Amino acid sequence: MIEIPQAAAVLAGAVVALLVFGATWVLYAGLRARAEAAEMADDNARLGALVGGSPAQAMVVRADGRVEAPRRFADWLGLERLPRELTELTSADAGLVPEDAEALTVHVTAAQRAGRPFTLSVRARGSDRALLVVGEKAPDAVRAPGGVVLWFLDATESQSEINRLQRDATRLRAAFDALTALIEAAPMPMWYRGSDLRLLMVNTAYVRAVEGKDGEDTVARGLELVEGAGLGGPLANAAIARDTGEPQTVAMPATIGGARRMLRLHDVPLPTGGVAGFAIDIEELEQLRGGLKRFGEAQRAMLDRLSAGVAQFGPDHALSFCNQPFRRMFAMKNEWLADRPEFDRVLERMREANRLPEMRDFPAWKAERREWFVAPDAVEETWTVGGTHLRVVAQPMPDAGLLLIFEDRTQQFELQREHGEMQQVRTATLESLAEAVAVFGKGRLQLWNRKFRQVWGFDEVFLDAHPQITSLVKAAGPRLTNPARAEVIGDLVRLAAQDRQQRGSSIAFADGRHFDVTAVPLPDGNALVTMLDTTDHHRAERALRDRNEALEAADRVRTAFVASMSYELRTPLTSIKGFTEMLHGGFAGPLSDSGVEYTEAILVSVDRLGNLIDDVLDLTQSEGAPLERRPVDLEMIAHGAAEAVAPLAKAKAIELVVEDAGTAGTVTGDPRRLRQVIEHLLRHAVGATPEGGRVLLHLDGNAGVARVIVSDDGPGMRPDQVAKAFDRFAQHGIARSGERALGLGLPLAKQFVQAHGGRIELISEPGEGTLVTVELPRK
Fold it and tell me: Does the structure show a pLDDT above 90 at 86?
């Protein structure tokens, strides 16, 4: 048994107690730190959520240029990954606009060096997003020495509202400036008064009218446009407008430029309590009114000197004026007329003096004449009183009055009687003529002779009614081969009577007769129509026309026959080609070398004959056929035609050159026909050019036309061949050695070019080659 000293035991107990206490404190401190860490984590999570959902996103730019930013910031800029450096804030299709990114870099550098805060507006590339950047030196807690904290705020909606307000402000400012300029440029004086009726603004015309120095001087001195600003003056008119809220108008005199003028002042109340005003110079209007009054007096003086009687009644049906001839015609005394008698009393006085026509019911007759005051138009009638003929014109006046004019037409009626006798003499003269003659006047048939009635077969009753031209034309239509040709007669009469022009035409009757119709203007304004029988002339002309039609029909039969034969030749030609291809392909057994050569020669001849048949069909069917109309790239189809002809040129070792100036461009037409034109010209050139020769296709154009030129260095053509190069179905025979064989290519090319409204020309001389030029209009 080991004995432990008491002191040692006490010491050991103290150590053990100390260890237990230390362990307990460590456990408590650990638990407390754990709780604080959990609370701090919760706070960090809450703060992170707040920052993540905040409308502002922070970005830290360190001193070495490295960038720390949240993911949401990259989404705002459309960046696929977070930027690591400031230069990565812009890319080819995302990030900031390059100039905004450059400006941001300059501001960040300045903030790093001088610690100066800044505010900058930037834009995102490829979107309407606008961002407001607030930059300041990074605080110590951020742990970014020398760095800068950038706060990005999404200001898209605010910027849109600001832009809208700026646009509205700009528009309103422009409208205000335009209104101010309009008021300033107005030729009439304009002003604005406050609620106390003092002048606040005037325009240049006002300043000139009051002889002020300028607008400010005029307003400061209170210069009024019209003298007398007291009761009944311009201020009184403006006060009434202000108090009643209704525009006011008054005419007042004023002295402007040393001359007395009459002005009409307009005062208009405004919602602000002020009054706007303007003045219109009516001096000329007043002078016109005075002049009109003087004109009326002069007119009455002139009417007093006329030979016709004139009487004027006012709106109250009272006589307001009558001239001396009226008094003499109807035996009116001045004393009785001075009382301004009414219309009915004047008619009664005329009847008492036996100056009215005889009538059974005078009250009814008088009531009808009373309606003249309200008639829509002037009324004209003739009064016969004894041996006197009066022409009476009743003209309603705009003021509800009436103007009566009485003209003595007795002498005129005598002249009309004499004129009737002269017409009878003229009618007898016309009846003795052998030609059909008629006289038209005032839109009617006036005179005609027996020959005219016999030619048309009209009834005497119809002609005696003096039919209008339209009725005569309608009756003449069924008698003509073409009833619509009857309108020619009316047209000729109108040209002669109205336009005073002599014209002629021809008409054909249904019974085979033909007449030349001529209309001659007469001095009295009428029209004389003569008809000359040309039946024999037309018969001879018809015989010649029938012969020409027979020749044209023969040409059409020939064309139809050629087309039909071309179709008929296709069937056996197709069979020949098919069987030959079978033989050449070995379906009937192997062929010898000569057999293969013979079959290939047959196929070449079949292709050549097929192309010839196609040309014949194109030549006979395309004439008059509608063309497709759409934009055509001339250079593209020209190259296509050259590629199609290239094998033929290669087989003869001919150099085929395409020279494109780049100005041919586009024309409107049928692409298939235009390609055929170029291909026919190239085939013709290659066929006529000897081995080793050269064929050139040249393309150019200008604003009006596109041009295609095909030339070769072949043997050329004789003048007789050039003259018949474009003839259809011309029998040129087999070309002699060294001569060009003329086929259907050139006629087809000419036909297609002319169908497009273009022009084709061939130039050639023996030994000098051939050149063909085609010009096609743009439209």
Answer: no
603 contacts 595 by C-beta, under 8 angstroms: no
Residue 373: CATH number of its domain: 3.30.450.20
Residue 171 lies in a domain: no
**In 10 A of CB 566, how many CB atoms?**
19
The pLDDT confidence band at residue 737, using thresholds 50, 70 and 90, is very low
> By three-state DSSP, how is residue 241 classified?
helix
Residues 122 and 195 occupy one common structural domain:
no
Q: Kindly state the average pLDDT of the residues 604-628.
A: 62
263 in the same domain as 147: no
Q: Which residues contact 475 (CB under 8 A, 6 or more apart)?
A: 458, 462, 467
Our CA dihedral for 169, 173, 179, 181, rounded to 10 degrees, sits at -170
Whole-model pTM above 0.70? Answer: no
* Domain range for 771: 623-777
User: Does residue 624 surpass a pLDDT of 60?
Assistant: no
205 has pLDDT over 90 = no
Residue 708 placed within a domain: yes
**CB-based burial, 73-105: b 16+ in 10 Å, e otherwise:** bbebbebeeebeebeebbbeebbbeeebbebbb
- Specify which residues 766 forms β-bridges with: none
The whole-angstrom separation of Cα 426 and Cα 419 is 10
Residue ending a domain, choose from 533, 549, 566 = 533
Determine the pLDDT at residue 734. Answer: 34
Res. 615 pLDDT band, cuts 50 70 90: low
Look-up: residue for tokens 């829509």? 376
Map tokens 């035609």 to a residue. Answer: 641
Tokens 């020669």 sit at which residue? 601
Q: Which of 281, 307, 336 is the last residue of a domain?
A: 281
Task: Render pLDDT for 654-675 as a digit per residue (tens, 0 to 9).
Answer: 999 999 988 988 999 989 889 8
Tell me, yes or no, whether 63 and 198 share the same domain: no
The C-alpha atoms of residue 627 and residue 668 are separated, in whole angstroms, by 10
Instruction: Count other Cβ atoms within 10 Å, centred on residue 14.
Output: 10
HSE toward the beta carbon, residue 100, CA cutoff 13 A: 20
Domain count, the chain: 6
The answer on 487 and 421 residing in a single domain is: yes
H-run or E-run covering 120:
strand 118-123
Q: Read off the tokens for 11.
A: 């010491």
E strands, 214-348, are 248-256, 259-269, 275-281, 309-313, 319-322
pLDDT digits (tens, 9 = 90+) for 379-422: 888 888 877 888 889 989 888 889 888 888 877 777 777 777 77
Euclidean distance between CA atoms 369 and 393, whole angstroms: 11
Return the H-helix or E-strand segment holding 27: helix 6-53
